[in-house]
Amino acid sequence: KNRNSLLIIEDAEGSLSRLRTSNQSVANLLNLSDGLLSDGIQVQILATFNSPLISLDAALLRPGRLVAQYCFPSTLNIEN
């Protein structure tokens, strides 16, 4: 039913920061992305962050975890 779906976690730094006292959120996300979601029902996970990558748990940044990164400049030039 949910094959080829996209799970969006917006402003994920709150739950996936390495500064948190508990890494349960990170462990849960990694377990889901490594096993059940990716293989079983083929769900892709898109997470957005409003913080530098250095603040994320290192487990999320290992090879094979993040397929792509898109960094936007801190100031965008918007033309009227």
UniProtKB/TrEMBL annotation:
Domain of life (superkingdom): Eukaryota
Q: What InterPro entries does the entry give? A: P-loop_NTPase
Q: Which Gene3D superfamilies does this UniProt record tie to the protein?
A: P-loop containing nucleotide triphosphate hydrolases (3.40.50.300)
Q: What is this protein called?
A: Uncharacterized protein
